[in-house]
Amino acid sequence: MNPYITGLKCTKCHQIYKINEVKTTCPHCQDEGILDVLYDYKTLKEFFNKPYLDTLQDKTMFRYKLLLPIDDTHISEMLSIGGTPLYSSNHLHHLLKIKQLYIKDDGQNPSGSLKDRASAIAVLRAIEEGHHTVSCSSTGNAASSLAAQAARIGLKSYIFVPKRAPVGKLSQLLIYGAHVISVDGDYNETYHLSKLAIEHFGWYNRNAAINPYLVEGKKTVALEIAEQLHFNPTDWVIVSVGDGCTIAGVYKGFYDLKQLGLISKIPKLLGVQSDGCNPLVKAFESNQSLKPVEENSLADSISVGVPRNPIKALYAIKHSEGFMIDVSDEKILEAMTLMGKHEGIFSEPAAAAALAGLIKAIDLKIIKHDQSVTIINTGNGLKDPKNAQLATKPPLLMKPDLNELIKHIEQKGDQ
Amino acid sequence: MNPYITGLKCTKCHQIYKINEVKTTCPHCQDEGILDVLYDYKTLKEFFNKPYLDTLQDKTMFRYKLLLPIDDTHISEMLSIGGTPLYSSNHLHHLLKIKQLYIKDDGQNPSGSLKDRASAIAVLRAIEEGHHTVSCSSTGNAASSLAAQAARIGLKSYIFVPKRAPVGKLSQLLIYGAHVISVDGDYNETYHLSKLAIEHFGWYNRNAAINPYLVEGKKTVALEIAEQLHFNPTDWVIVSVGDGCTIAGVYKGFYDLKQLGLISKIPKLLGVQSDGCNPLVKAFESNQSLKPVEENSLADSISVGVPRNPIKALYAIKHSEGFMIDVSDEKILEAMTLMGKHEGIFSEPAAAAALAGLIKAIDLKIIKHDQSVTIINTGNGLKDPKNAQLATKPPLLMKPDLNELIKHIEQKGDQ
Fold first, then answer.
1. Using CB atoms, which residue from A79, A341, A383 is nearest to B151?
2. Residues in chain B with pLDDT < 50?
3. What is the pTM of this model?
4. Mind listing the pLDDT tens digit for each residue in B348-407?
5. Nearest CB to B343 within list A152, A156, A184
6. Which of B159, B145, B88 is nearest to B113 (CA)?
7. B112–A382 C-beta distance less than 8 A
8. A168 touches chain B (CB under 8 A)
9. Which of B87, B133, B173 lies nearest to residue A415, judging by beta carbons?
């Protein structure tokens, strides 16, 4: 384990535990007592600075290994996770009339999503703790990223999915050689079975929120954004929100850098949900505790009726002086086409929600035209071609006749 | 245009032309007279060396801009193409009992395939030559990569597809905002209509083989492999072969480096086709000119009955002292699961053909156990989830019952 980690702090009762004293959540607060990893910033600050970072050859997330809950024994065996491009927008910032827009494309990760950053930590922690098998219950990006990292590093993976899981998503898991248990029941029954099996077999548990270490992997996206912008991050950073772990990770990354004196201010975080599943938006707006909602959004990666990390997520919004916003599925599909057409980036719906949120936030004057913005593209659109079809019109069907084609194109005036 | 380019040489009649004197193929040899770009290696050799490369910050394919047929005006606006990871195998080399195995994962390119390297050159050449629209006829990776690069750089794209093109592949094009013309006819009619339309409207032509510059983009995969291996490339480099442009590009990259004195020997190239569509294997084996064959392979990206670049492809095999081999579709699917299960990499069928080829070449003792090998993973498996399903068994369906699960897992002895 990283020697600069000093302990784990319960986000609910604020009790501090020694590393290894607890494995998942706070023993007092149970599942609600999600733990936060504490670092010895004072010692790190003495050398973790720009000149130090400039000496590093590693361009992956592991360049920040001194801020991660791992030792470095197996890093060289991992896939190339992180180090994803931060694009300065070529066209969208003109269209939206804002000063500057960056897009952090985490869809270029090995399994196609930001979740690779968390799963990388999961498999490395599993090895450090002597496990041979990792497990989670999910059909989405968490599962496929875990299956990929486990395959690469030589661990077994058991993935629990509800029977209704689409075959397309299953195929990625099966190709990575995961043991996939399709549960003849709903998502709750699936989750429950996975929990019992993980306890019974003693597998490493990658079910997100209760694992204090996964957020630390996710935070590397913020560390990269800051470093790619020479430690002058944009006024706003926008990310879509499901169970709240990703936005918590983004906050934690900027928080680390502020403690280390590398940035002067944490960017305002805009969290975006679909209005078909917006429990955190409601909790933010009402300033009350979270109430479960139904899951009615096509953006499956953020369609989480009972987010498991509301405390960290809302803390991130509040302490960055940010905002939560919801957008319709229609606007999410529209954002997918805008991102593709104007920047050449193919986003899955949950990822495109961030752009839809930006557009709404500009309309509502939450984000001003003279502010700079970074959008995090959390997942590759190739993961979900069906919704890409929904977002676009079918192509023009024509006979193989040049004259007809010329007539058509000239009529449209679009040569 | 790059000032170190000295001309274009016909691969058939060997006539040399000045740059700008010809646009596509050799005027004498017509479509068969594919041109090769010539460089002033003597001048380049004076400074294009390891210390020079070490000074470069750019990790994308454009770090090699002095070996590319472009000027550098618009490079900063491009997506992050190339700079893909070269993985040292964790497990497969043990399984295959070879000394060393590397996997160059070009599936991590922005649109998910190696073709991004060629399309990047296409859009930059289009801009330099004053075009506003680029065009090609394809349903595959060439089309989606062209649509993506055109969107990013602000060019229009017209993509011609046969009516039978699967909607999944179309969705990627439509998301990138391409004008997609679905032709009510077969592939030949589609290609013919695109040719007439390109001529009529004066669009930039990205139909691969006849464009002398696209191979130059593709060669950057070889430049990267060599640099990532500190200019000691492996004994063999393996890549699947469709119309022959990619393997020609791989050869050209190593050729450049040999001329510059950066490597001492060009690796042996192993070209792999499906036995359902193997015209280049037949031409190689018989040492006769190419005969068209039917297209009966599920590896759609290499299912090309009439390869348009046979001369360059067979030249690459011969002059690298390499070999051509074919594998069954069944072995391709098996290779997909091996790559996923043992290295955590999801390949599309055409990409996995390279691994299937390696396995067969070891069996046939073409590749020896004491030799080192690099496989090029040309495309992301997410492009083709349907074949991933074909390659794998459906998951185990279970009731949400822990005891039943325990019984099952203990019976399998696979915890």
1. A341
2. none
3. 0.96
4. 999 999 999 999 999 999 999 999 999 999 999 998 888 999 999 988 889 999 999 999
5. A152
6. B145
7. yes
8. yes
9. B133
State the maximum Cα–Cα separation within chain B, in Å, rounded to a whole number: 77
**Minimum CA–CA partner of A74 in chain B:** B90
So what's the pLDDT on residue A24?
A: 86
Q: Of B176, B202, B228, which residue constitutes the final position of a domain?
A: B202
Answer yes or no: do B344 and A79 touch at CB < 8 A.
yes
Residue A415, pLDDT above cutoff 70: no
Which strands sit side by side in the sheet containing A156-162, from one edge to the other?
A: A204-205, A133-137, A156-162, A179-183, B396-398
Same domain, B178 and B234: no
CB contact under 8 A, B344 and A151: yes
This model of the complex carries an ipTM of: 0.95
Is residue A108 less than 8 Å (CB to CB) from chain B? Answer: yes
CA distance readout (Å), A295 to A37, A163, A213, A289, A356? 31, 17, 27, 18, 19
CA–CA distance, A41 with A48 (Å, rounded to integer): 9
Answer whether residue A254 shows pLDDT above 90. yes
| Domain encompassing residue A371 | 86-112+214-391
Q: Which stretch of A166-175, A215-224, A273-282 has the lowest confidence by average pLDDT?
A: A166-175
Residue of A nearest to B154 (CA): A342
pLDDT-derived band at A307, boundaries 50, 70, 90: confident
In a domain, A319, yes or no: yes
| Boundary-marking domain end, from A202, A237, A255 | A202
How far away is chain A from the Cα of B387, in angstroms, using its nearest Cα? 9
| Contact partners, residue B297, CB within 8 Å, separation at least 6 | B274, B275, B276, B277, B303, B329, B332, B349
**B243 part of a folded domain:** yes
